[in-house]
Design brief:
- This protein is α/β, with parallel strands linked by helices.
- The protein is rod-shaped and about 110 Å long.
- A hairpin with a 2-residue loop joins strand 5 (173-178) and strand 6 (181-184).
- A six-stranded mixed sheet has the order 1-2-3-4-5-6.
- The protein has helices at residues 5-79, 125-141, 161-169, and strands at 86-94, 101-109, 113-122, 149-158, 173-178, 181-184.
- InterPro entries: DUF3782, Restrct_endonuc-II-like.
- It holds the Pfam family DUF3782.
Length: 195
């Protein structure tokens, strides 16, 4: 039996109603996506804000360590027989074409010796490796120290034992907080590497 006009009309109404329901569900889904997107953007904004805040704190902690170490290095290195005439903070060098540069947190000098010190709130193996690479470039980027004995040191408030051992084996002086003082953790058998 062939569909009647009424059957076809009913079918069109059902299809139209189904289409309206589908469109309503699409609008609801679109609103949910928009809300999710808004939440993602807000989360991204909060993460960026927290990163800036923590980055600022990390820089401040590094400055704090530098300020703790700076007055102690004169006493510490003199006790190891190394005269200290100058202690300079945040010394930077860049090559002539600007393609390479380094920054040394503390540079300790006398008339023949320079010691580059990397200061961190918490020292990692990567920090030590980066400092070793920095020391390799030092005399090339600071030609005024080409005739100096160059040595290196690392200093930290938090210094895991394995990191301290690694730095020691690489020929670096290891300075760490002990109570309210800064100490050189290298024993009397230590011979610093010279670059």
């Amino acid at each position: 039996m062939a569909p009647t006009y009424e059957d076809i009309l009913t079918l069109f109404r059902e299809v139209a109603e189904s289409q309206k329901e589908t469109e309503r569900k699409f609008r609801e889904t679109d609103l949910k996506f928009q809300e999710t997107d808004r939440k993602i953007q807000e989360t991204d904004r909060l993460i960026k804000e927290l990163s800036r805040t923590f980055g600022g704190w990390s820089n401040r902690l590094g400055e704090f360590v530098e300020e703790m170490v700076r007055p102690a290095v004169v006493r510490l290195f003199r006790s190891r027989g190394l005269e200290v005439h100058q202690v300079m903070r945040d010394v930077t060098a860049i090559n002539d074409d600007g393609t390479e540069g380094i920054e040394v947190d503390l540079l300790i000098t006398n008339v023949e010796t320079a010691i580059g010190v990397e200061c961190k709130s918490r020292l990692t193996l990567e920090d030590v490796q980066e400092h070793l690479a920095r020391l390799e470039k030092f005399k090339r980027l600071f030609p005024q120290y080409a005739g100096y004995r160059l040595m290196g040191a690392v200093a930290a408030m938090v210094l895991p034992d394995e990191v301290a051992r690694f730095a020691y084996r690489q020929g670096l002086f290891v300075l760490a907080q002990s109570g309210d003082a800064i100490l050189i953790r290298n024993d009397d058998r230590f011979t610093p590497k010279e670059w």
